[in-house]
Automatic annotation (TrEMBL):
Family, per entry: Belongs to the lysyl oxidase family.
Catalytic activity: L-lysyl-[protein] + O2 + H2O = (S)-2-amino-6-oxohexanoyl-[protein] + H2O2 + NH4(+)
SRCR domain span: 48-149, 174-251, 268-368, 378-486
Protein name per the record: Lysyl oxidase homolog
Keyword Glycoprotein part of the UniProt annotation: yes
GO function terms (MF aspect): copper ion binding; protein-lysine 6-oxidase activity
PANTHER family in alphabetical order: LYSYL OXIDASE HOMOLOG 3, LYSYL OXIDASE-LIKE-RELATED
Main location (coarse class): secreted
Modifications after synthesis and translation: The lysine tyrosylquinone cross-link (LTQ) is generated by condensation of the epsilon-amino group of a lysine with a topaquinone produced by oxidation of tyrosine.
Signal peptide as annotated in the record: 1-27
Length: 714
């Protein structure tokens, strides 16, 4: 009776922009189940880990801790269903593959399980069929491994050893149920409900505080609750007699407050993420962007970053350069936030010394973001996996009905594919395809969208430019757009200091430039030169291009379509790999060069990383993660022809992958700029930096380099 009377005092919580969940005061909308499974004794808990080499954090040999000892699982009868169960127990949402024959090296000690057969839906590997614990006829040459999807289950800590005992009262998700049904997204106010066991339950408001609300708002992707504005009325008071025909005729008193909003300088950003609200954390210090070391990196510190950027609380605090490695300075180490700070600069932290951290320790975050339901209006069909297929989108007919339709493949490119993959929640774009005849398994044949042109940053294809009425030259379904998505992507950046250090001028005789002329590496005036007499003046420098992403950079074209250049004796795997340009003060090109990929290969790699790509003997081309391709200053076409350039001040600009031919996680760091001073005999480069390395203020100062506006030496 006591409980019953108390319960009558509760009312369901609803509010603007979000809320938290003390499970011990929640009111269930469905009756509770009777009884719970008692937890296992402490010494019987199962633990799991991924080990071995070489591997990434989400893959490896699977090992189980049972009866006080770590052991492996045999690959006999192993399947993707087994891997799905194990990956979930490791804290990942699912598996993308599995390995056999000790791919990640042979384990030691016990082989705990053999002939494991799961359906895929089991909560634990111990619920699957097997020969029983410790009963195996395998050797460690048959140790199984798993490859998990790089996305964590909510509530799991980012650890390589996962304890599988789960709290029966664990809250999985939270939502706002609108009081009045609405199609408007995101939902910003309503009744708070939490996912509990197999249903949704509400929360009693006894003891509810604004701090609870802040936590819920953070989970739903909002930085805080919407606060009621006080004394912010432009019209302070009105005193009408009642006979006036217009409000303007009444005595009015206006608030004299200052309504000009303060512009807040953003000092933190996220880079390299596939989805909104995730990425490598970078902070602005002394007008230069740099990374944060992951020592003592926690959800509290990550949440301060997320809220500062306008998102909710942090879903994950990622370590070990999980969103790729940065370049340049590391500004902060051992960040220690309480969780209430307005900016990460208000948290405690240590300055960096060269011995403290390397970029392999760059911190990253995944933030809670508002649910927009964008994935409900797009789908892929016909692909071999859920990551590929023909793109179909929902369109609204004149009568209000919605059917599925196709997108015209004309002009469909990597940028549009990036947006499609983001909207689908499938990570990055590997390829954007203009023909999809090999995925012809759907009965949808009508083109409903054409002329799609995206910047690559949009959240949905509907946010991109497109034709108001469909206009498509090839209307057959096989000419509709398709995508291949990927959880990871490469990210190329140029070593800017090396360009500045290696620059010089060479007057090269024409008789040594026949091959270069054949590959269009000279300016147009070279065609009218008196060959083979005379020379061309060349601005030369070295280019060192690093892959700091999470996937190898591979040419889009297959080996069968590479072009052989007999003059230089190599294959070109990309038409244009890099643009070299000299710009005037107003951004006009005054000289240019281009570099087809002489041959993409691993020149050198960071310690512990092996080279994979080598051009010799028609070898595979690419740049491995953690490696770089070096184009030395003394090879053909590694220059800009400045024969026709007058003395003055210019900007040297280098752009990698300028046509977006190969997908990357971040294109904003593909350009490098330098101030360039040329006196007719010598050349100097200053302030060489990646296009997004400086603050806006520093970038403006760069553009106002002395003499830049009159193009005169200063």
């Amino acid at each position: 009776m006591k409980t019953s009377r108390w319960w009558q005092q509760c009312s369901v919580i609803s509010f603007l922009l979000a809320v938290w969940l003390p499970a011990w005061i929640m009111a269930q909308t469905t009756p509770p189940t009777q009884g719970t499974t008692s937890p296992k004794p402490q010494n019987d808990r199962l633990q799991f880990r991924l080990v071995g080499y070489p591997r990434k954090h989400n893959e490896g040999r699977i090992e189980v801790f049972y009866k006080g000892e770590w052991g492996t699982i045999c690959d006999d009868d192993f399947s993707l269903s087994n891997a799905n169960v194990l990956c979930r127990q490791l804290g990942f949402i699912s598996a993308t593959g599995w390995t056999h024959s000790a791919k990640y090296g042979k384990g030691l000690g016990k082989i705990w399980l053999d002939n494991v057969q799961c359906n895929g839906g089991e909560k634990s590997i111990e619920l699957c069929k097997s020969r029983g614990w410790g009963n195996s006829d395998c050797t460690h040459d048959e140790d199984a491994g798993v490859v998990c999807k790089d996305e964590r289950l909510p509530g799991f800590v980012d650890s390589n050893i996962i304890d599988v005992q789960m709290d029966e009262n664990k809250v999985e998700k939270v939502r706002l149920r609108p009081v009045v049904p609405t199609k408007k997204m995101p939902v910003t106010e309503g009744v708070v409900e939490i996912k509990y066991r197999n249903g949704w339950v509400q929360i009693c408001d006894v003891g509810w505080t604004s701090k609870n609300t802040r936590v819920i708002c953070g989970m739903l992707g909002f930085p805080d609750e919407k606060k009621r504005q006080k004394n912010q009325y432009h019209l302070h008071s009105v005193a009408c007699v009642g006979t006036e025909v217009h409000l303007a005729a009444c005595p009015l008193e206006f608030n004299k407050g200052n309504y000009r909003g303060r512009l807040r300088m953003i000092t933190v950003r996220l880079k390299g993420g596939a989805k909104l609200g995730e990425g490598r954390v970078e902070v602005l210090r002394n007008n230069e962007w740099g990374t944060v070391c992951d020592d003592r990196w926690t959800l509290l510190s990550a949440s301060v970053v997320c809220r500062e950027l306008g998102f909710g609380s942090a879903k994950e605090a990622l370590t070990g350069a999980r969103m790729g490695q940065g370049m340049g300075p590391i500004h902060m180490n051992e960040v220690l936030c309480l969780g209430t700070e307005k900016s990460m600069w208000n948290c405690g932290f240590k300055n960096i010394t060269s011995e403290d951290c390397q970029h392999v320790e760059d911190a990253a975050v995944r933030c809670n973001t508002p649910y927009m339901a964008l994935e409900n209006s797009i789908r892929l069909t016909g692909g071999r996996t859920r990551y590929e297929g023909r793109v179909e989108v929902l369109s609204t007919e004149a009568n209000g009905t919605r059917i599925w339709g196709l997108i015209c493949g004309g002009a469909w490119s990597t940028k549009e594919a990036m947006v499609a993959c983001r909207q689908l929640g499938l990570g990055y774009a590997n390829h954007g395809l203009q023909e999809t005849w090999y995925w012809d398994s759907s009965n949808v044949t009508e083109m409903v969208m054409s002329g799609v042109k995206c910047t690559g940053n949009e959240m949905s294809l509907s946010h991109c430019q497109h034709h108001r009425t469909v206009s498509c030259q090839k209307t057959a379904a096989k000419f509709s757009a398709g995508v291949i998505c990927s959880e990871t992507a490469s990210d190329l950046v140029l070593n800017a200091p090396l360009v500045q250090q290696s620059v010089y001028i060479e007057d090269r005789p024409l008789h040594m430039l026949y091959c270069a002329a054949e590959e269009n590496c000279l300016s147009k005036s070279a065609a009218s030169a008196n060959w083979p007499y005379g020379h061309r003046r060349l601005l030369r420098f070295s280019s060192q291009i690093h892959n700091i992403g999470r996937a190898d950079f591979r040419p889009k074209a297959g080996r069968h379509s590479w072009v052989w250049h007999a003059c230089h004796g190599h294959y070109h795997s990309m038409d244009i790999f890099t643009h070299y340009d000299l710009l005037s003060s107003n951004g006009t090109k005054v000289a240019e060069g281009h570099k087809a990929s002489f041959c993409l290969e691993d020149t050198e790699c960071h310690e512990g990383i092996s080279k994979r790509y080598e051009c010799a003997n028609f070898g595979e081309q690419g740049i491995t993660v953690g490696c770089w391709d070096l184009y030395r200053h003394d090879i053909d076409c590694q220059w800009i022809d400045i024969t026709d350039i007058k003395p003055g001040n210019y900007i040297l600009q280098i752009v990698i992958n300028p046509n977006f031919e190969v997908a990357e996680s971040d294109f904003t760091n593909n350009a490098m700029k330098c101030n360039c001073k040329y006196d007719g005999h010598r050349i100097w480069l200053h302030n060489c930096h990646m296009g997004d390395a400086f603050s806006e203020e520093a970038e403006r100062r760069f553009e106002k380099y002395p003499g830049q506006f009159n193009n005169q030496i200063s």
